[in-house]
Amino acid sequence: MSFDINIILRYYPELLGGAWVAVWMTAVSLVFSSAVGAVVCIGKLQKYGAANRLATAYIDLFRATPEIVLIIWVFYCLPLLFDVRIGRYGCAIIALSAYGGAYMAEIFRAGVQAVPRGQTEAANALGIPIFHIARRVIVPPAIRRMMPALVNFLTELLKATSLLALIGVAELIFVASTLGSKTFAYMEFYTAIAVIYFMIIFPLSVYARRAERRRLRRTGN
Amino acid sequence: MTRVGTLAGLVNRWGFHAVLLALGALMLTNLNWPLVRSFEFAFIWEYRTALFKGFGITLLLTVEAGIVGILFGTLFAIGSQSPFAPLRWLVAAYVEVFRNTPLLVQLLWIHFALPLVTGINTTALVSGITGIGLQAAAYYTEIMRAGIQAVPRGQIEAAQALGLPARTRWTRVILPPAIRTVIPALLNQNISFFKATAIVGMGLLVDDFFNSTLRVSNDTFHFIEPLTFAAAVYLVLGWQAGRWTLRLERRLTRGER
């Protein structure tokens, strides 16, 4: 067995391009996931009624279905079902956002519910306008509370982008497989992308763990 | 609540319903109705043997993840509590590497790169079993470690004070309560691995349940029916398993109080 580091150095622009696609897909999906998650979270925060039931159904649906099944389903079925042309990148973003929306909804909900009811009521009693309450009373502690879970979810999303190789999105695995089949240096390229993934994901999960520990120490619950 | 609160609630609820109705109307008007009317799910029945076999592989991988994960996870978690620092570092490095890289990368590495190191060519199924086992061990190590750390220190110190040998201390004092506290977490993790088996199927072309349905699709040129069927099966099983786990978790925590 020989490990030829030169071949990685020779093809590093392609590998970096793959990493860029992975990060970019994660960023776009995170934005859309947040939008979906916010809507679903509002539904879930209602105590009863159709909105709550629908939001619960959405969350259960997308958390119980494997991400890969979802990605493949969106890629093969959605364009047929609606008779539209969606590229692989569009399908990737739709699938990841739908999946992410369910997780983001739960993260938002945990954040909002972490704000003590008394604080909102106190602000209400003081006659502070509702949007001001949302912005100054509910959101800051909610964000502080959500950060660890959010960053943790970000690592999950990054890992999920690796599955997009199976529908032909040119992210890291796809690039490595293509280069591998061209040069037969599978060992080198698969090792290289594993290292790249690790370098992106590891700092995030370390941060999430530290932030969670700090939060637990401060609030004690 | 105050008037402001109810108003906000109304805006929330009506806003939510408005978004939902708009989305629903948009979907219904844009659906490809002729195609929807032509759906027939009956042909899936003709492929029942292949699908059952595939489901067997899925179950095999899920159960394997659970067994290998709990066995090696417990061992590694014990290692992570060792007074010998290099052993702790080794466990930590193993856990971090397998938790912070995607499963698909690990699977491809094991299937295509590892044989160049070991000289042993593995079939896709063996690579899949290896990969999912290795990752399960890493995830279960973290869970078991949390369980061990939740055991009150006083109990461990009492066992030491009584002069119990290390083996008895672990098997009789530390591990039983540790495992009991993490049973729900272990089950939830195994549900995640049930979902992850689909990655083994499609990533390495192992004929698990998901890959079998994809092959049915390719064989019949019908994509929507088999894929929807697959999604529904994963959904129902994963959802039901999640509900059972939640119920078990509630019962266990109630017993503690």
Q: How would you describe this protein?
A:
The complex is a heterodimer of chains A (221) and B (257). By secondary structure, chain A is mostly helical. Helices cover 83% and strands 0% of the residues of chain A. Chain A has a single domain, classed as Orthogonal Bundle (MetI-like fold), CATH 1.10.3720. Chain A is built from 10 helices and no strands. The termini of chain A are far apart. Chain B has 257 residues and is an all-alpha fold. Chain B is globular, with a radius of gyration of 24 Å. In chain B, helix 8 (166-204) packs antiparallel against helix 10 (224-256) and helix 9 (209-220) runs antiparallel to helix 10 (224-256). Classes of the chains: A mainly alpha (221), B mainly alpha (257). At the A-B interface, helix 2, helix 3, helix 4, helix 5 and helix 7 of A face helix 1, helix 4, helix 5, helix 8 and helix 9 of B.
Relevant terms:
heterodimer; A: 221 residues; 10 helices; 83% helix; globular; B: 257 residues; mainly alpha
Give a short summary of the structure.
The complex is a heterodimer of chains A (221) and B (257). Chain A has one domain (5-219): MetI-like (MetI-like fold, Orthogonal Bundle).
